[in-house]
Automatic annotation (TrEMBL):
Limits of the Aldehyde dehydrogenase domain: 40-502
UniProtKB keywords: Oxidoreductase
Organism: Saccharothrix coeruleofusca
Name this protein carries in UniProt: Aldehyde dehydrogenase
Gene Ontology MF terms: oxidoreductase activity, acting on the aldehyde or oxo group of donors, NAD or NADP as acceptor
Origin: domain of life: Bacteria
Similarity field: Belongs to the aldehyde dehydrogenase family.
Length: 506
């Protein structure tokens, strides 16, 4: 089958005029400022970065293009706040109350923040609303922890008292992706604050506006000035300077595996602690005994949700041979009904545009590569419409494990379908990747489910579902090249604290 050229015009999703009347001016126009030491400032260089609405291709508000000078100012403010009695000596219950205040303002402004992200980076409101609901829950979860970060009294000789103290690290740098600004930030910011650290945030350059609005909301809480600072700017300027800064004790990072490795190398120079949440090429595995209709909808959501711009996208689809043809029909049906691309602000939209022109071009080049490599395009494979960065939901088959479209993270609405014979074959194929972030298993057989859950090398395994994230209390992270360390739960607090041993001669 031949593919249509990438500039082919399918239906252009209509603009949701009604919903767009309520878009906050904050995202639409003007020059936003960064938040450093409790002050709203432009970049020291005076430079700005543009933003573009990926649905309409209209320009949006600009953000400062901060660089090393701005990062240095933010780190100095955070360092000062770290030792300021108003934060360093704050009682744990008071710190917990402030985390609850943050949850309150997020909940009160959830709709506004969700809309800002949807307009700025194109994720459907269905998704940004979910992220905001979870964001509030994450802050509430960590609000309970400051009062429970115990050290221990350690048995030793009788004339000595030995104990440990759980202490914060100092200034924490947070860098994260454009694909879920308000989804990825809380799992880093909330535990960092709960443990008593101060923070410098560097959001992705194309999706910073919700973080700047959140900073305005944080300023309305009892959080002392300088405890949270925001520097917007490019990754290779502001991001690089934050990772290299000698007064930053830890970097919490979400992004691509390539950048993650670079971050770790840079951080080694100053022996910073690093946690990395990186990319994936996760499998969906559908057994013949599964509820195939339900599986088809779940598998489609797994690689099309947020237009495939999710680190946990399950883009390698393995179906048991005996049900392949039946499953492909059901999958095509799901793809062309629920998952038709539409304006991110329309109610019910599951697949919006790609986030930026650069991301659109990147995914388009993978579609061309798929054909060059000999894949068959079952459906999709083209641009969708003639306005906005939409790509038609795309299913490939006749693929082989060595193809780049099977091995590399495309980060777009593109799935590659393959078959397997039995459980052992499914395990081998699911694990044939350098990544290990997530997996989704579809079966009604308990033994198969648990064998797969144990054998698949991934930080999260879903059985008969996909994409369900915890609101704080489950660990999240990657095996293999999908990351380092975990977010969520009690475990993550170890990544934001250090233990001190104290020995007292009695
Ligand atoms: P990057 O890894 O480049 O970006 C992630 C974050 O790191 C951004 O805030 C970025 O800033 C910042 N950054 C970039 N370079 C540096 C640096 N040298 N030092 C410190 N920070 C830096 O990912 P991209 O946004 O370029 O996306 C490319 C691919 O990465 C995607 O197509 C996808 O495959 C993957 N990705 C995965 C994510 C996930 O959730 N696992 C999230 C985002 C991307 P800036 O954006 O300003 O450059």
């Amino acid at each position: 089958m031949s593919v249509q050229p990438l500039d082919a015009v399918a239906t252009t999703p209509p603009i949701a005029e009604e919903a767009r009347r309520d878009v906050p001016e904050f995202v639409l126009s003007g020059d936003r400022r960064m938040w450093i030491g409790g002050e709203w400032v432009a970049a020291a260089s005076g430079r700005t970065l543009p933003n573009t609405d990926p649905v309409t291709e209209h320009p949006l508000a600009t953000v400062p293009r901060g660089d090393a000078a701005d990062v240095d100012a933010a780190v100095r403010a955070a360092k000062k706040a770290f030792t300021d009695p108003s934060w360093a000596e704050m009682t744990p219950d008071r710190r917990g109350r402030i985390l609850n205040q943050i949850a309150d303002v997020i909940e009160r402004h959830a709709e506004e923040l969700a809309t800002i992200d949807s307009v700025n980076m194109g994720a459907p409101r269905l998704i940004t609303r979910t992220m905001l609901a979870e964001a509030g829950e994450v802050f509430r979860y960590y609000a309970g922890w400051p009062t429970k970060l115990f050290g221990t009294q350690v048995p030793t000789r009788g004339d000595r008292l030995a104990y440990t103290r759980k202490e914060p690290l100092g200034v924490v740098g947070v860098i994260w992706g454009w694909n879920g600004p308000m989804g990825q930030l809380p799992g880093k910011l909330a535990p960092a604050l709960a443990a008593g650290n101060t923070v410098v945030l560097k959001p992705a350059e194309t999706a910073s506006l919700s973080t700047l609005r959140l900073a305005e909301l944080l300023a309305s809480t009892d959080l002392p000035d300088g405890v949270v600072n925001v520097v917007t700017g490019r990754g290779d300027e502001a991001g690089q300077a934050l990772v290299a800064h000698p007064d930053v004790a830890k970097i919490a990072f979400t992004g691509s595996t390539t950048t993650g490795k670079h971050v770790q190398k840079t951080a080694t120079e100053t022996l910073k602690q690093v946690t990395l949440e990186l990319g994936g090429k996760s499998p969906s595995v559908v057994f013949a005994d599964a509820d195939l209709e339900r599986a088809a909808r779940g598998v489609a959501a797994g690689f099309l949700g947020n237009a495939g711009q999710a680190c946990v996208s399950t883009t390698r689809i393995f179906v048991q041979e005996s049900v392949r043809d039946e499953f492909v029909e059901l999958l095509k049906q799901a793809m062309t009904t629920v998952f038709t691309p539409a304006d991110s602000l329309s109610s019910g939209t599951v697949v919006g545009p790609l986030s930026t022109r650069a991301q659109f071009d990147r995914v388009s080049s993978y579609l061309e590569l798929a054909v060059e490599e000999g894949a068959n395009v079952v459906t999709g494979g083209t641009r969708y419409g003639d306005r906005g960065y939409f790509i038609a939901p795309t299913l490939l088959d006749d693929v082989t494990p060595d193809m780049r479209v099977v091995r590399e993270e495309i980060f777009g609405p593109v799935g590659a379908l393959m078959t397997f014979t039995d459980v052992d074959d499914a395990i081998a194929k699911a694990n044939d990747t350098e990544y290990g972030l997530a997996a989704s298993i579809w079966t009604t057989d308990l033994t198969t489910a648990h064998r797969m859950a144990a054998a698949v090398q991934a930080g999260t395994v879903w059985v008969n579902t996909w994409g369900e994230m915890s609101t704080g209390n489950l660990p999240f992270g990657g095996y293999k090249q999908s990351g380092l360390g975990r977010e969520g739960g009690l475990e993550v607090l170890d990544a934001y604290t250090q233990s001190k041993a104290v020995v007292v001669a009695l």
